[in-house]
Amino acid sequence: MTSVLGIPRNRPLLIGAVHLLATPGAPRFAGDVQAVLQRAMEDARALARGGCDGLIVENLGDIPYFARRVPPETVAALALALRAVGEAAPGLHLGVNVLRNDARSGLGLCAATGARFLRINVHTAAAVADQGLLVGRAAQTLRARARLCPGVALLCDVHVKHASPLGRETAAEAALDTLRRGMADALVVSGAATGRAPAVELVAEVRSAVGSAPVLIGSGLDPSNAAELLAHADGAIVGTWLKREGRIDEPVDVQRVAGMRAALDAARTWARRP
């Protein structure tokens, strides 16, 4: 993973998700931006203390999501959150995911805040989700990155969760297209929904197809399945399990983060990967 996030490849990568409370304009916004930022900073500190290598800020509380572009107030809130999280956890690699699929705003945020990686749910092809049709815009995204922030890594999902691919390609075929034709820097493999792990066979299929290209688990990793999944992956983006009692609406629990870090470090199968 050194070539992707600048992190030494001597252990599985753990990226902790900073799930924002609802931001201005979203139906669940409680009217206090400072409360959103305070919670984000508290979660970031807990993730850092527990041993995360990086953090990804997501506007998770903004349901229902827009299928493509988010409004300006969402971008503004994410910019404030990225700055606050960076100050709360200095030294950690920072990224962003603009839900549901706004890669262009994500690139703008990276350019303005110095965030180093961007997760894109649908980068190539298309998928059907509760937001409607999600369309990959790799051509536009790559050209905008070259102009705005060429050093930013693109972490792109393969058959993303909470969606059904519109085509009939296998996960292996989708992974190869995302990597080669979409020029992704790393691939993300998730289960069917938030907090649900992908099948080991699915991760193994993607790994077999893409060789040594970086592969991350995008949902559902926990200490009980870490060794199996990391036999075929380089690390994980983890959110739900790191919360108090594993409940997505709760704050991050530093003890659970430390437990996850220990589980990843104990995944001996990963250490034997070439």
Describe this structure in words.
The chain has 274 residues and is α/β, with parallel strands linked by helices. It has a single domain, classed as TIM Barrel. It is built from 10 helices and 11 strands. It has helices at 2-5, 33-50, 72-88, 103-113, 138-148, 171-181, 200-210, 226-230, 254-265, 268-271, and strands at residues 13-19, 54-58, 93-97, 117-120, 126-129, 132-135, 153-158, 163-165, 186-189, 215-217, 235-238. Strands 1-2-3-4-7-9-10-11 form an 8-stranded parallel beta barrel, surrounded by 6 helices. Strands 6-5-8 form a 3-stranded antiparallel sheet, with no helix packed on it. The protein is globular, with a radius of gyration of 17 Å.
Fold topology:
Blueprint: H1 2-5, E1 13-19, H2 33-50, E2 54-58, H3 72-88, E3 93-97, H4 103-113, E4 117-120, E5 126-129, E6 132-135, H5 138-148, E7 153-158, E8 163-165, H6 171-181, E9 186-189, H7 200-210, E10 215-217, H8 226-230, E11 235-238, H9 254-265, H10 268-271
Parallel strand pairs: 1-2, 1-11, 2-3, 3-4, 4-7, 7-9, 9-10, 10-11
Antiparallel strand pairs: 5-6, 5-8
Helix pairs in contact: 2-3, 2-9, 3-4, 4-5, 6-7
